[in-house]
Input
Amino acid sequence: MRLYEYEAKEIFENAKIPVPPRKVARSAEEAKTAAEEIGFPVAIKAQVLVGGRGKAGGIEFADSPEETEEITNRLLGLRIKDTPVHSVLVEKKVEVEKELYIGVTIDRFEFKPIVIVSSEGGVDIEKVAEEEPDKIHKLHIDVNDKLRSYQGRLLASSAGLQGKMISKVGGILQRLYGVFKKYDAKIAEINPLIVSGESVYAADAKLILDDDSLFRHPELKEKGISMRHDVSELTEREKLAQAEGIPYLDLDGNIGMFPGGAGFGIASIDLVKQLGGEPANFMDSGGGPTPERIAKMLDLLVDNPNVVTIFGARFGGISRCDDFAKGVMIFLEAKGTKKPMIMRMTGNKWKEGMEILENAKKERPELFEKIEVFGIDTPIEEVAKRAVEVAREEAGG
Output
């Protein structure tokens, strides 16, 4: 669960990580008042739960009340990666002598927290790591340990800092790691960390928490921080799915993914991508859903205007294939055949599931004009390949 910049900065400030003076505004008038109280020049920053706002024009600078109002009105009318801007952060502009990157995340290969420092801040850290790896410095920390003072200083020194700045930045690294541990974070990041004269400031703040740990942090709820989408505002289909308790995430492709189970769902997405297709969504239809729930899942896919073909792959375990087939029939009898469906069933009750669909096809052949059903004799790779082929045909490619 990602926090807004202003929320992350409040947490950082409480941890004694220096941040510039700032105020949140939800109108041009509020922004003007805030800027006058803070003192010009100011940075005006769109508050959204997505990255790349700088490149999208979401950060501007103002030198007067009039300029502040004009910029705020413009930003509040902006959409960044299809996310509307509802508030801005008005912040004292800091003179920049040097920009650094510092962050803490989890190394999923080593199963340990990792502290990362770079002498290049304010840029895409992944790009720096790829093109100039010598500018990236890392340190793994045992999950039960803390970042020591000498370790913070060594990391600061590795970024090219000298004198008192080594201790200052080293201390900030320690406190950032403390925030990471205290709030069960997945990522705690400052990019850039600005060196300005004898001072250092967190010019930006990124904090992504493990939403499964929120019950341990009632203090966040008191601040108005509650469960939200990890990356951005929910799409309309994601809202519908959430209301039905269906794990669902929109993607950018045109093949509706209708798998069984989260792990199989991710594997299906990888398989379709490998075969040159573009998945339109992630969906978890595992856990023994009822036929009625299966039908609602299909509704989500068919109603997506981007979807041209549906790829259904049921590996029956707890979730039985006969229930899967019954759900398909509930959907077809209610909505008919709108888009091609390429399906495969194996595992628990797969023969019974195949029999349900075969009998239905004999009785109502018109419902199956765009449906292809495969069983255990056809490898999943061939079925996925067929779905990709059909999607290309339907898309005119």
User: Anything to note?
Assistant: The chain has a mean pLDDT of 91.
